[in-house]
Amino acid sequence: MVTEANSGAADSGAEAGLALQPAEQEILLQDVPAFARNLKDPASRERYAALAEAVETGLVPLAQVPALEAMLELALQTKAIRQRHGPDAERALSDLFFRTGRGAALRQAARDVTRALEALAGQTIEKISVTAGPGRHTISINTDHAHLTLSVDRGGVQVDRVEVGG
Q1: Residue pair 100/69 in contact by the 8 Å Cβ criterion
Q2: 3-state SS, residue 162
Q3: Is the domain of 26 the same as that of 77?
Q4: What gap in Å lies between CA 96 and CA 107, rounded to an integer?
Q5: In degrees rounded to 5, what are phi and psi of residue 125?
Q6: Range of the domain at 148
């Protein structure tokens, strides 16, 4: 889980970060160095080499969590983890991703959309439409009692607007 250092203790030696479970660490010990070696940009290679060192300790410092998020998101989207390590590894690293800020935000957005859609239960749907824009789709749902607008983009799905009343 991501932990924060004591905010009141500026000289605190406690390091904040994301603690890795043994299964997560085992997979990342293989994948992060390999990922780093395949990067062409020297600064990126260096960033992921530092992440590989952090993985060895079992604690990813907060400053390196964005790099971990990016790598996990790419590896999970492309099914690379499942192909190399199998479904259990994919599940372990998905759980890890959802413990990061980005993963937690995506999960919360999905919960928010689910809650908004559940509010429409029992209502009569009058119209559903989808519009496309650059990098984004908008879904509008009109019922006899509400209007719900959702947006779907690379960052996930989110509730844009809810209007209740006839």
Answers
A1: yes
A2: strand
A3: yes
A4: 12
A5: -80, 125
A6: 106-164
User: Do residue 90 and residue 135 come from a single domain?
Assistant: no
Say if residue 53 is in the same domain as residue 28: yes
Q: Are residues 136 and 94 in the same domain?
A: no
What is the chain's Cα-based Rg? 20
Domain boundary, last residue among 99, 117, 151: 99
Nearest to 104, CA basis, from 149, 69, 79: 69
- Predicted model pTM: 0.77
Are 99 and 18 within 8 A, CB to CB?
yes
Beta bridge partner(s), residue 149: 140, 161
pLDDT, tens digit, 9 for 90 and up, residues 141-163: 999 999 999 999 988 899 999 99
Does residue 16 contact residue 59 with C-beta atoms inside 8 Å?
no
